[in-house]
Design goal:
Helix content is 80%, strand content 0%. By secondary structure, it is mainly α. It starts with a helix and ends with a helix.
Length: 304
Amino acid sequence: MAKHRVWLLLVLCNLFWAGNYVFGKYVIAEMTPLWITFSRWLLASLLLLPTAFWLEKPELKIVRKSWPALTAMAVLGIIGYNLVLYSALAYTSATNAALVSALNPGVIVLFSVFLLGEKISGIQVSGVLVSLIGALVILTQGRLSQVLYTEYNQGDLLMLAAVVIWTLYSIVGKRLTAVPPITATAVSALIATLLMVPFALAQGIDTQKIGPLAVTGILYMVIFPSLFSYVFWNMSVRAIGASQAGIFLNLIPFFTAIISGVLGEKITTAQIGGGLLVFTGVYLTTGMLDRRLTREKRQGVIRS
């Protein structure tokens, strides 16, 4: 897959995930984290499974052999991450949750280097740092000193757990090469849904408390963060690796600011400046500058 196409997929999937943060904060007021996750992925499975069989025509024998990895993806990325994320939003602000999630790219790089043996250059490391600073500028409105004085509550600690869970999910997805990406997402979503059935039934749900906003939020989560984002993410991780894909997660705070602006909130100079830093960091981490410098160096040697 061409690099520019991978980058487009990563930009889109993080745009959709930013909307998940916005809707999640509202939906959690009317539904429990378990029922948000269960209903979201139950409906998503109904869309993902026929899509996978239509587009990829997977070999069922290979899918069956890969059930341990697919189950791990279900437990980590579908159940674990979403339950922890929505639980965190019940205790902490969306800003704090996004601030902690901005650690994700760095954690993915760290785990990828030690667990997968991926190599990154000094320029790519600087890209991670620049994009992280950009995310912090957005989230603190340009007052970086606030990071040192943030009072981390239960929600903040849950988001730290979510960061680790998503990192492990990404690494498992990178190693699962036998099953096509859409099929992997669809099957793991189905497994996760089946695993959640007894817990969802035991907990129960009061449908009278569910309003139009929650219904709209769930439908958005099904179509965009669940269907498109997970498929785009798994395709991208396989194409360029978990560490490079992970840096794009820093786009979530930037897109969250844009969505908030559309909803009537004022976009600040700090958010604009932070967004530019995030995009700069993404550019550095994708290796584009490395390749350009290498190409210019080779051309210089040839000319001399």
